[in-house]
Amino acid sequence: MELRHLKTFIIVAESGGFTRAGEQLGYTQSTITNHIRSLEEEIGNPLFDRLGKKVILTDVGEHMLSYAHKILELSNEALESSQMNGKFSGTIRIGANESLMIYRLPAVLYEFKRKYPQVHIILQPSESQELHNELKSGKFDFALFTHPEQLGTDIVTHSLVQEKIVLIAPPKHPLTKKVNISPADLEGEMLLLTEPGSYRDLLERRIKEDGINCSHIHFWSIEAIKQTVMCGLGISYLPFITVKEEIEQGKLSVLPWTYSEDFVTTELAYHKSKWLTPTMKKLIEMIERHGEKWKGFT
């Protein structure tokens, strides 16, 4: 069982197709097909159901995917351990939600790459609800997230900073004239929301407790939400760090929300069985140090 075949299998499973996997890996489609066929012959079962251009994992494929991640992770650990010789190198894969990728991680990664240029960093977006499985399967070495209650006891977490969440509206919105805004004041308003989880859950919980009905539009981009709020379509509930600049520029206004003390905690997480290389430990130390700085700017 060749490692390159396992890597191809993982990329096909994650990308959902042979063509996209070939583009990511730099292989022709025939090479991708041969890698998968070799694995299937060795295992004795099909790994994918072919539905036109799309492929879906079979039950055997789902089972094999978990082992493929573990085998590659062990291989990487052995390679990094044998090559370390006092140098910091290797690959670190990080998953994070959009707000942390844009507003928290860049300064960390800039400093880390300057200090350890031989380390390869792979940063990918992730939904909060998927992080547990992604850490468990080995897709990510670390994750930064803001929804700790969904992770299990097999995940190690480091609390970094409490993120202030604000209710925002365009400056001329009628609600900006109120002294205090309760969930009842949101009746009939259009809410522009991020993906399920984290701070969205906080707002929906408050509204549900008061039996309020609101229309909403679901976005996958905080930047899109901000632009849409500024255009006057609705209001939103976002981490202060993501709207600080627009508030200072007068493009957005913070509404006097009754639950203004609500917050979410940004956490660094990894699986408890994860073998931490010296390089990974250095990254943990750097993220925690930056976390101390963040506490003064939320």
Plain-language structure description:
Strands 3, 4, 5, 6, 7, 8, 9, 10 and 11 form a nine-stranded mixed sheet that branches. The chain has a two-stranded antiparallel sheet with strand order 1-2. Among the domains are: 1-83, Arc Repressor Mutant, subunit A; 163-263, 3-Layer(aba) Sandwich (D-Maltodextrin-Binding Protein, domain 2), CATH 3.40.190.10. A hairpin with a 2-residue loop joins strand 1 and strand 2. The mean pLDDT is 87. It starts with a helix and ends with a helix. 44% of the residues lie in helices and 22% in strands. It has helices at 3-15, 18-25, 29-43, 59-83, 98-103, 105-115, 131-137, 198-209, 222-230, 240-248, 278-294, and strands at residues 48-51, 54-57, 90-96, 119-125, 142-145, 155-169, 190-193, 215-218, 235-239, 253-254, 263-271. It is built from eleven helices and eleven strands. Helix 1 (3-15) crosses helix 2 and helix 1 packs across helix 3 (29-43). It is of the alpha/beta class and 298 residues long.
